[in-house]
Amino acid sequence: MAITREQALAYVTLHAQTNSYPELDVSTVGTFVDANRRYSTWTANTAYAVGDYIVPTVPNGRIYKAVVAGTSSATEPGYPVYVLYKSYRINDGTALIWQDYGLISPDQYDTRSAVRALWIYKAGILANQVDASDDNSNVKLSLLQSQFLTMAEKYRPFEVIT
């Protein structure tokens, strides 16, 4: 079962420890979650760029990638019922061409990539801050920044090379 945006926000908030210093508000977390959205649902009269991914309004288990930019038509194109091979192309609206990209991932949001990006963002916040100490305390923000980058590496995507 696919996760909702709210579930993705909860996962990312927990794993990126956004309630710990430096704290991040839900709006910032939402920006990272939305930036790591794998696909959207096809929408009429919408400009799509090369590389955008959509699924039909009536799910058919497949995902489509824009290979030629353009604007979608007022009515959704017909998708073939059976596609025996990836790369089947569908014309839509003004110049827009969708290419069958294969079976859809059940999760619309790439939460691991969002978590990784937030750890890097938090490390960036500390980049301009300096270590400080006095007679009673010693604050090493550089160590905290290093730890954030280490956490980001735990969420680095992996590739399978064939």
Please provide a written account of the structure.
By secondary structure, the protein is α+β, with helices and mostly antiparallel strands. It folds into two domains: 61 residues; 64 residues, no CATH class. Helix content is 31%, strand content 20%. The strands form three sheets. It has a five-stranded mixed beta sheet with strand order 1-3-4-7-6, with no helix packed on it. Strands 2-5 form a two-stranded antiparallel sheet. Helix 1 crosses helix 3, helix 2 packs across helix 3 and helix 3 runs antiparallel to helix 4. The longest helix is centred in the last third of the chain and has 16 residues. The protein is elongated and about 70 Å long. The two termini are 29 Å apart.
Short description:
By secondary structure, the protein is of the alpha+beta class. It contains 4 helices and 9 strands; from the N terminus they run H-H-E-E-E-E-E-E-E-H-E-E-H. The strands form 3 sheets. It has a 5-stranded mixed sheet, with no helix packed on it.
What are the defining features of this structure?
2 domains, alpha+beta, 162 residues, 31% helix, elongated
Describe the secondary-structure layout.
Blueprint: H1 5-15, H2 26-35, E1 40-41, E2 47-48, E3 53-55, E4 62-68, E5 70-71, E6 89-92, E7 96-103, H3 111-126, E8 132-133, E9 138-139, H4 141-154
Parallel strand pairs: 1-3
Antiparallel strand pairs: 2-5, 3-4, 4-7, 6-7, 8-9
Portion in strands: 15-25%
Helix content: 25-40%
Number of domains: 2
Rounded Rg: 21 Å
Q: Strand order, main sheet: write it out.
A: 1-3-4-7-6
User: Termini, distance in Å?
Assistant: 29 Å
The outline comes out as elongated
Mean pLDDT: 90
Give the quaternary arrangement of the chains: single chain
Structural class: alpha+beta
The low-pLDDT segments are none
Total helix count? 4
Q: Main sheet?
A: 5 strands, mixed
Q: What is the succession of H and E elements?
A: HHEEEEEEEHEEH
Q: Count all strands and give the number.
A: 9
